[in-house]
Amino acid sequence: MAQMQQQEKPVRPPQIQTRQPGLESVMEPAPHAEPRHRAREPKLKDRVALITGGDSGIGRAVALAFAAEGADVSIVYLNEDEDASEAAKLVKKLGHRCLTHAADIGDEAACKQAVEAVVQEFGRIDILVNNAAEQHPQENFEFISAEQVERTFRTNVFSMFHLVRAALPHMQKGSVIINTTSVTAYRGSASLVDYASTKAAIVGFTRSLAHSLVKRGIRVNAVAPGPIWTPLIPSTFPPEHVSTFGSDVPMGRAGEPNEVAPCYVFLASDDSSYMTGQVLHPNGGEIVNG
Q1: What is the set of active-site residues?
Q2: What's the pTM?
Q3: Amino acid 2: pLDDT
């Protein structure tokens, strides 16, 4: 009982944001995005990565981790200009180029334009990270409108089809695709039925696409984070939930973005050369058997 009471204590100030996907610049405390270490021998030297949702949260941490490992980066984001500018500044500080591109990835034409911008700037795409997502909690299933379902699937799932289709002509043997799914794909979520459904679809998409592209020498894998402290949290949940977010996992806390980013580095690098169609689970100890 004492342990349960301790877990329920706030671990960060209650806070809320009134826009999605939220701003990292106003979060308290700020998520940790900086690379936890920098390798002597860069794992991603001279590679080019396109990362959706790269302005903040997990996407920003991945962008910085990739840059620390030698990659140039393109950050695709919705409309969080300040966060995107800061992320680009941090990538450049690590000695690598960074292109920022605002786009609603739920729109096929916008996805094509995002890919074309990267190719025009860097000439190719070696790593595609489909990371951006949105979620809209509803306590009652009947409150989930058809419009909400369609919007969530357009952003979280349809965008992956659009981006992969646009990027493939510019990807060579040895390129990689990494998709962000979620722990909710495996255990479900009563208040995030549509979101969890999209994340489950991403698992199937990852496994099937891996089989489809294996003969081309392009690997496809995914990462299924648990509770991670990102702008999506204060922009989604009420303050009282935010204050204890992540305290119910075995490790008793939410993870930081830079604790998840190494999974993406591993999957993007030759260290994972014998892996395709797989999912990594940085989730604080929750066993999902996935």
Answers
A1: 195
A2: 0.87
A3: 41
